Amino acid sequence: MARRAVLFSNGEMPKASLILPLLRTDDTLIAVDGGLRHLRNLYKTPQLLIGDLDSVTADEVSQAESQGIEIRRFKIDKDETDLELALLAAAEKGFDEIMLVAALGGRLDQTLANLYLLMLPELATIKVTIESGREEIFIIRDRVEIHGTPGDIVSLIPLAGQTTGVETRSLKYPLRKETLLPERTRGISNVMLTDLAGVSIQSGCLLCIHTRNQIKEEK
């Protein structure tokens, strides 16, 4: 099974009933600064706490140290956000997959920056997904399959200029070797027709936002 790290950031935390079913027992959990509290609320203990730690208290850091949690502390005056540092650390550890939780919501600048972090070159060979339980967000660099249910919404947004040769399968509004532009909304709000849809591109990259219509929540 692929080795996966799950990073809990300090954004808006989805309902526990949406996130807990997505976690695996073999996940490596990483708290990104204030994301430590999200993990505590889920009664989970991270293997790593990383960031400038300005969103956690000294007592919380001391408790983490007493639990044997690895701590990587950085200066507040730095060029990278805590999440960028956490993503780079996960990439260095050689994970095959990375899932980000609580990386959306709150400040718009932070949310946009977190979306663009998916384009880090260090992550090009790693499957990286932002999860809210209701939405999964990821980058398409060549081709992907999207697992869902009929009626799910799939939006395709170019992030770095035009994306060419966009072709879709099993979506209501087909794209056939088309070019999508960031200033146009051609790729927004497509609809899955079956449990499995496909997207492929020739050049560029797309931000894919898959919104699930049917959500299974833990009781």
Could you explain how this protein is built, in words?
This protein has 219 residues and is of the alpha/beta class. It has 5 helices and 14 strands. The protein has a 10-stranded mixed beta sheet, with helices on both faces. Helix 3 (58-66) links the parallel strand 3 and strand 4 (70-73). The radius of gyration is 18 Å and the shape is globular. The model has no long low-confidence stretch (mean pLDDT 94).
What share of residues are in beta strands? Answer: 25-35%
Q: Please outline the major beta sheet.
A: 10 strands, mixed
Please give the order of strands in the largest beta sheet.
Answer: 4-3-2-1-5-6-7-14-9-12
**Number of separate strands:** 14
Low-confidence stretches: none
Q: Helix coverage percent of residues?
A: 10-25%
Radius of gyration: 18 Å
Structural shape:
globular
